[in-house]
Write a structure and sequence with these properties.
The protein has a single domain, classed as TTHA1013/TTHA0281-like (2-Layer Sandwich). Helix content is 13%, strand content 27%. It contains one helix and four strands. It has a four-stranded mixed sheet, with helices on one face.
């Protein structure tokens, strides 16, 4: 079974999801818990395969930089969980206070 890596990066109120192994393959999700379904849909369309014919490994980019090059505390990812259990992990993403 083929495994596709999906990179999640916070972008405002959305998660930007990119599949580095596939050209022009990207989507977005409102919540990280929706990332698997959204990524599966775009990968299946791009590769012309069934959504259950491959696995996904989600890699969350920790933190993000604001326009001034400093850590943006509003969307700081505290826990980066990857692998098949990321959607069910306890508190996989936290927002810094």
């Amino acid at each position: 079974m083929i495994n596709h890596e999906v990179v999640a990066r916070r972008s405002g109120k959305w998660w930007f999801l990119k599949v580095p192994g596939l050209r022009f393959c990207a989507t977005q999700a409102r919540r990280l818990s929706e990332a698997d379904g959204m990524a599966r849909e775009v990968i299946a369309m791009q590769t012309d395969t069934a959504e259950d014919s491959f696995t996904i490994t989600l890699r969350v980019e920790p933190g993000r930089l604001n326009n001034e090059g400093k850590q943006d505390r509003n969307f700081l990812v505290r826990y980066a969980v990857t692998g098949p259990d990321y959607a069910t992990a306890a508190n996989p993403v936290g927002v810094a206070a």
